[in-house]
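Recap from last week: sequence in, structure out.
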Amino acid sequence: MIRPPNSPPNLERPILNSETTTTLLTRLSDHLRAAGIEQPRREARLLLAHVLSCRLEDLLRHDVIAPETIATVEALTQRRAAHEPLAFLTGHANFWSLTLAVSPATLIPRADSETLIEAALAQFPHRHDVARILDLGTGTGALLLAALTEFPAAQGIGIDRIEQAAQLARANASTLGLAHRSHFIVADWAAPLAAQFDLILANPPYIPHADIPSLMPEVARYEPASALDGGADGLCAYRAILADLPQRLAPHGAAILECGLGQAAPLRDMAHAAGFATAQQHDLATIPRAIIITRPTR
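Predicted C-alpha cells:
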C-alpha cells in the first residue's frame, strides 16, 4: 500500500476501504512528488483515469473509488514512483494527431520527433508529390504512420531490427486504418530494399554510449538500449544510413533524420561529404532537430 510521505509503516489504509476521488488523488500525487516525479498531480490523475477507463475531465464524476480500483492504481503509482515511464504503464502515447500503442520493445514517441513531420510537410507542400515513404528504425511506427496521414497518396515501409517493434507497428497501423498503405519488415536499416523513396524518415540511435547511464532514469532504465546507443560518438547509425542513401533516395526526394544536441553540424558535414545538400529545422526548444538531406541541384 502507498503511504503518505514520512508516515510510519503501521498507518496503512485498510485494504477493504473505499476512498473519495479527491483524497485518493492527493495521496497518490504526494507519493509521486516524494519520488521526484514532475507534475505529480497530473500523473496521478492520468493513472486513475486510465484505470477507470475515463477521460480526465470525467474523473470527478466518480465520487468514491472502490477498493479494487484503489489497489490497481496504487500498484501503477508504485511503478511510476520507481520512474517507469507513464506511457508504459498506460500502454499508449500521443504523437502528432495519433494515439499509439507502446511497449518496452520500442522508444516512446516524443514531441521532438514531430519536427521531422513538420519538415516533411515544408519540403513537400504538394501532398500528392510523395508516393513512397521509408521509415528507418520504425519502432512504434510513429513517423511513418504520421506521414501517411499527411501524404494521402503515399504507401510506406517501416524497418526495424526488433521483431517485437515491427509487430507493434503493424498493430498500430491496423488500429489507425493504415494497414493497407504500410508494410513493416525486420531488417538492419535499408539492406533488403531495391526501391527508391520520395521521403525517408529516421530517428536512429544517437546517444553516445558513455552518456546512456546519465540519462533520466525513465530512459536509461526502461527504454531499449538498442534504440538509444549510437556508438562511441553517437553517429554510427548515420554512417550506415548515409552509405545506403544514394541508392534509396529518389532524384527529387528528401531524407529527414533526427539528431541530438550538438549533432547537427557533424551530421551535415557527413552528408555533404557524401555528396548531398542539407538544411535543418529546429524543435520547439530551438535545438536543430531535423536534418533535411537532398540531392544537390545542378
